[in-house]
Amino acid sequence: MIKMPLNDIISKIKEKAGLSEEDINSKIDAKMKQLSGLISKEGAAHIIANELGVKLFEQVSGKLEIKNILAGMRSVETVGKATAVYDIREFSTDKGSGKVGSFMLGDETGSIRVVCWGGMTDSMKDMKEGDVVKIQGGYVKENQNRKEVHLNDKSRVILNPPGESVGKVKKVTSVRKKISELRENDSNAEILGTIVQVFEPRFFEICPKCNKRARPDGEKFACSEHGEVIPNYGCVINCNIDDGTENIRAVFFRQQAERLLGKTSEEMLKYKDDPAAFEAVKNDLLGTIVKLVGKVNKNDMFERMDFIANLVFLNPDPGEEIKNLEGESSKSSGETAEQATSGAAAQDKPAEEQQAEEKPAESPAKTPEQTEPQPPQQREEPSPQQETTTQTAPK
Ligand SMILES: [Zn+2]
Q1: Which residue has the higher pLDDT, 113 or 225?
Q2: Please, which pLDDT band fits residue 161 given cuts at 50, 70 and 90?
Q3: Cβ proximity of 107 and 65 under 8 Å
Q4: How many whole angstroms separate alpha carbon 381 and alpha carbon 395?
Q5: Residues of the chain with CATH 2.40.50.140
Q6: How sure is the predictor about 61, in pLDDT bands with cuts at 50, 70 and 90?
Q7: Which of 46, 184, 188, 311 allows an S-S link to 349, with CB 3.0 to 4.6 Å?
């Protein structure tokens, strides 16, 4: 099934039925109530659209603008500029070995990650940033709440096709908000606040081949795809951030946790075996001003909102921050995710935020990879809900 993000459904209804967002949301809520909560918010929105005679997607054929690419689509054709080209990785599994690579493709309407499997990785060998790239025969999957176009041996990649050009690639900009202004499902929100509480890091087992969560299997660990593995470890750190209007729990996964602490993943592992060593770090962090770009997830277990940090800036430049405050409120800082990661992977805004509602047990607090390409299989991170809320080191 083609999956359209809730916010997109709402804006389509808004545009075509001329209703206010408020009206639409109350219709959705009423529908959910009517169906005794047996439907997701997204599903209810689909029904409302149907009842109002709003067609959510047009027939898919020919070249699509990137913003119109939806999870579940097949035979997707699009043209964009390569904005980042990642390494090709070889992997081996019980079933054999393979290759995977990915690049970011952007056009005037947005950006999307393109994942090449097997022989398709050959088409990436000569690809440079800035090349115009046409892809055909892609299928769209959702990974970490983002859409990805996957290409297999039946797909096609054409570098710099004659007659095709792409204008200025739309940059992702974040919107500065006060913490009190944050709403569920906000994505690419930017907050500036002080770290007022730091929780112990938690570690979770990941498959060394695909970085997917490895689950305990007897005394060993197993990846659902690669079977028994000797796991690597990922890390998550939670902090409370206060900006004077409100405070919120911010969740830092893996690279973001490393950025927050200024440590490498190897250095982070030290705290796994020696939690007491984290005390000094914790004290350093308390009172630190941070700028975070991320999204807001509802944490059902604790009935609160969590801020999932996708980008972390420690001690941001005060001059620039004052300028931001003086500018029109809730305007972007002008800093794009792309600039912020110094040319590393520019991640487009998370497209679908709805998984959280559908699968609360596996709250998708996931982080995009800004700095290293990873294989594109669905990765799972532990939910921030599982965290212990104690502030003291165990033992
Ligand atoms: Zn695996």
Answers
A1: 113
A2: very high
A3: yes
A4: 26
A5: 68-159, 175-386
A6: low
A7: 188
Distance of CA 298 to the CA centre of its chain: 15
Most confident of 40-49, 137-146, 360-369: 40-49
Residue 87 burial (CB count, 10 A): 11
**Topology of domain 175-386, per CATH?**
OB fold (Dihydrolipoamide Acetyltransferase, E2P) (2.40.50)
CA 51 to centroid of ligand 1, rounded, Å = 43
How far is ligand 1, taken at its centre, from the CA of residue 266, in Å?
A: 20
Question: Looking at residue 251, what is its pLDDT?
Answer: 96
Closest residue by Cα to residue 260 from 232, 230, 229, 282: 282
**What type of residue sits at position 280?**
A
- Alpha carbon of 364 to ligand 1 centroid (Å): 18
Task: Give the Cα separation of 234 and 149 in Å (integer).
Answer: 26
| 68-159 placed in CATH 2.40.50.140 | yes
Q: What is the pTM of this model?
A: 0.52
What is the b/e burial string over 201-232, where b = at least 16 CB atoms within 10 angstroms of the residue's CB? bbbbbbbebbbbbbeeeeeebbbebbeebebb
Ligand 1 mean position, distance from CA 224 (Å): 7
**Residue 253: alpha-carbon gap to chain centroid:** 11
The residue ranges of DSSP E strands in 5-120, in sequence order, are: 63-64, 76-85, 89-93, 96-107, 110-117
Alpha carbon of 91 to ligand 1 centroid (Å): 10
